[in-house]
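Researcher: I'd like a structural prediction for the single chain below. Treat it as a standalone chain; there are no partners to consider.
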Amino acid sequence: MAGVQTAGRGRRARPWSSPLGNFHATVTFRPPGTPAEIALYSFVAALALRDALVTLTGLPDAFALKWPNDVLLNGGKLAGILLESASNNAGVAYLAIGIGVNLIAAPDGDLFDPDALPAVTLLSQTGIRFTPDTLLDHLAPAFSTRAAQLAKGFAYIRADWLTHAARIGEPIRVRTAQQTRYGFFKTINDTGALILGTSEGTITISAAEVFF
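Model: Treating it as a single chain, here is the predicted structure.
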């Protein structure tokens, strides 16, 4: 865990910084499995973070999950999660999961796409303040519990994630590196891909940015 983040990296390698009092931490380990299976830890991390935040705040209805790996508070972006990995001849050498949470401060809106959800802080939305150390003390065991759940199969994680997913059944815009699509967020499949219902039929999307 870092106290201050001055040279962080967000989605699509966007520069990132965050002040003292916010949460910035990375868990690094060597999970077994294929790259596709290891990518499912994105859902593990999101659920674990939500679990920890609900325990600390007592506000289960305030937190939702946005595909693929954001945690929302009252509809705004509270936290982001970024997975990075390195490969070797035997498969994945390591997986690093970076987690950032706006406990007391949010980044400038100029850093985001104009259509992105506004960034919010835990303090401004709830009046609750706790230290990054306190969050880490709750997040670490929550992550361990959710990782053990994944070891039994993604179906358990998928079901819980969908229970807390934002905008299921509602219209969304999905932007990949090649194109932008419009449709209804139907579900995620057993690989974690987003299932989008469109006028052209159902489309499976494995990597993209989602806009509400």
